[in-house]
Amino acid sequence: MTQGMLFDTGEPSGPVDQRPQVLAPGACLIRGVARAQAPALLDAIRDIIRQAPLRQMTTPGGGRMSVGMSGCGVRAWISDAAGYRYEARDPLTGKDWPPMPGILRELAHECASRAGYDGFCPDSCLINRYRPGDRMGLHQDRDERRDVPIVSVSLGVSAVFLWGTPVRSDGVRRLVLNNGDVVVWGGLSRLAWHGVAPLPQAHHPLSGEIRYNLTFRVTA
Ligand SMILES: O=C(O)CCC(=O)C(=O)O
Ligand SMILES: [Fe+2]
Question: Which residues does 136 contact at the CB level (< 8 Å), separation at least 6?
């Protein structure tokens, strides 16, 4: 049971088959594609969150999200009592969001291209930080351009990604996403419902008990 596992993250330790696996029309999972770069990506994330600290946003309904969020790029996603939207400035610091580092932009471009979406140029990256027990409820990503895909990168502790279809009543599949796995959804799957199950208590050598997720979007 321990063979092929790194600590208790569920992450396979051997080489992974990086060929895109089709999840649905327009959507695919590319296992391990960001794994070699994970240490550098985590360094870039830590640099961004020094400038734009992680915060738990409030929802229009008055709730508070468990996931800690930050962002980089020309605009980043925020939520507060007034609703969900993209803002060019971080409301917490009053400053522009940190620029998107080349290593992030290039990874997103490369993953989109492997998924069949050429020319993906994200202007926004949302950073999600999950501690044990943190979760993200089922939702659709509706606040940005819908004619381009979402590219989502998982780093650190493994999580269960809940993956549905654009029809909520279709229900969800449970996919374990490990460090370095990338999911791309666009086209007929662009408005697929998705979420993240509560993060298990686990340990990853690069991130301790934390999972980070990056989602790259085009907002304008
Ligand atoms: O953390 C994830 O894997 C998904 C994040 C997500 O759906 C979002 O930020 O909109
Ligand atoms: Fe989402």
Answer: 65, 66, 67, 128, 130, 195, 196
Q: Determine if ligand 1 sits within 6 Å of the CB of residue 183.
A: no
Supply 117's token pair.
């979406």
How many whole angstroms from 140 Cα to the centroid of ligand 2?
Answer: 6
Ligand 1 mean position to 154 CA, how many Å? 9
- Does the ipTM surpass 0.95? yes
Residue 217 and residue 185: Cα distance in Å, rounded?
Answer: 11
- The CATH number given to 21-217 is 2.60.120.590
What is the domain partition of the chain in residue ranges? Answer: 21-217
Q: Which residues surround ligand 2, an ion (CB under 5 A)?
A: 141
Torsion of CA 128, 30, 21, 162, to 10 degrees: -10
pLDDT tens digits for 50-66?
999 999 999 999 999 99
Q: Residue 81 carries which side chain, given as an amino acid letter?
A: A
Distance from residue 168's CA to the centre of ligand 2 (Å): 14
Distance, in Å, from the CA atom of 219 to the CA atom of 203, rounded to the nearest integer, reads 34
* The model's pTM: 0.95
Q: Where are the alpha helices (DSSP H) in 60-213?
A: 102-114
